[in-house]
Amino acid sequence: MSIEELDPQVQLVIQKTIDAGIPKVHTLDPTEARKLIENLAEARKETYPPPEVLSVEDTATGADYGRVPVRIYRASDEVGPVMVFYHGGGHVFGSINTHDTMARFLCRTCGITVVSAEYRMGPEDPFPSAVEDAYQTARWAANHASDLKVDPARLVVGGDSAGGNLAAVTALMARDTGAFPIAAQLLVYPVTDYRGSTASHRSFAEGYGILEAETMVWFRDHYLGGMEGASDWRASPLLVESVAGLPPAFVLTASHDVLRDEGIAYADRLREAGATVKHVDYPGMIHGFFGYLGLVDMAERAHKDVAEWLQTIWV
Question: What distance in Å separates the CA atoms of residue 83 and residue 183, rounded to the nearest whole number?
Answer without folding.
Answer: 10
